[in-house]
Amino acid sequence: MSDLWLAGQGLTSSETTVDYPRPDRLVKGNPKRLTTSLYEHPNMNCGIWQCEVGAWNIVFADNKQEFFNIIEGIVRIHNAENDSFIEVKAGEAGIIPPAFKGTFEVLEAVKKYFVVVEVPAAE
Question: 31, 82 in Cβ contact below 8 A?
Answer without folding.
Answer: no
